[in-house]
Amino acid sequence: xxxxxxxxxxxRHQDLFxxxxxxxxxxxxPDQIGCDARKMKLLIxxxxxxxxxxxxxxxxxxSWTIExxxxxxxxxxxxxxxxxxxxxxxxxxxxxxxxxxxxxxQLPGAGTDDIAFESVPARTAVCNVYEHEIGIAEYILSxxxxxxxGIPRMDAALxxxxxxxxxxxxxxxxxxxxxxxxxxxxxxxGREVARRARAFGMKVLACSRTPRGADEFVERVDGMDCLPAxxxxxxxxxxxxxxxxxxxxxxxTQQLAKMKPGAVIINVARGALIDERALFEACRDxxxxxxxxDTWFKYPAQGDAVAEPSNLPFRELExxxxxxxxxGWTEGLRPRRSKMxxxxxxxxxxxxxxxxxxxxxxxxx
Length: 365
Prior knowledge:
Elements: H1 10-13, H2 22-25, E1 40-45, H3 56-59, E2 64-69, H4 74-81, E3 86-88, E4 104-106, E5 125-127, H5 133-149, H6 151-159, E6 180-184, H7 188-199, E7 203-208, E8 222-223, H8 227-233, E9 236-239, H9 253-257, E10 264-267, H10 276-284, E11 290-293, E12 320-322, H11 333-350, E13 357-359
Parallel strand pairs: 1-2, 1-3, 3-4, 4-5, 6-7, 6-9, 7-8, 9-10, 10-11, 11-12
Antiparallel strand pairs: 5-13
């Protein structure tokens, strides 16, 4: 059966990344990188072999082979990772088999919360990739516009012959202009949200673990000690910070109580940043205006598409918009990420410095 890569046998898998003649592009890698002049090997898990990496060969300029390992078959995974130079995966558990040749663990996304760094080989660099900030920022602006305008509600009413929201009978809908958006976590996503929010005439507040001065979109970026003030002033609160032990549960009952009664919280980061029950009860009891939730508290197993996103009935709340972790999953994301991943594979093959490094390799290991 043909796989999403377009290959149906191990012998044909190995030619996937040989997109140019090996005589011209075969990698000659310095000794300090720990690789030789053979064609380098990239390993992916069968659970990721769904086409999401299929564009990577279009951007490569060095020769690679690819092998797909069944991650549920411990013996197969151990055998195939033994001579792999790089692996693309969002997951590295504590019990991964030995990977003595591995020089790069390339995450195909930004989050590192599923990487057991203490079990990654010392000589292996860990790199992530972004490029999702454009789609996520557009999603956030769309959600805020949806909240203040309510086009689907007017559409549904008019299909029933009801002129809800018209200039004839009202009610009037709101505007983003003049509203305040507070961004918690001012990294790539936060800056793209601020860029677009300013274009709509919104006031932008931001706080981060690393406070800093003004840029073209915000007057300043406050530290996390200013979170209560941000919550108190904001009409929309956007969570855009990474999930770490220090940020888990950063929004709980006390923080929700500081929000305006009509304010809306938007989570595009990680579900565990918010106390699940506290958020449900605040929305249910109308202590805040509501929530737009894209990242959840429960997920389906990889390969499945049906699962409850929470133990609590968020679906019953009219003031909650629910989406299935889709905010960054755009048509433009795959080519942008594929280009970045291929770039790091090429850099590894040529012995050049990697980009987006979140764990540096230990020299001499």
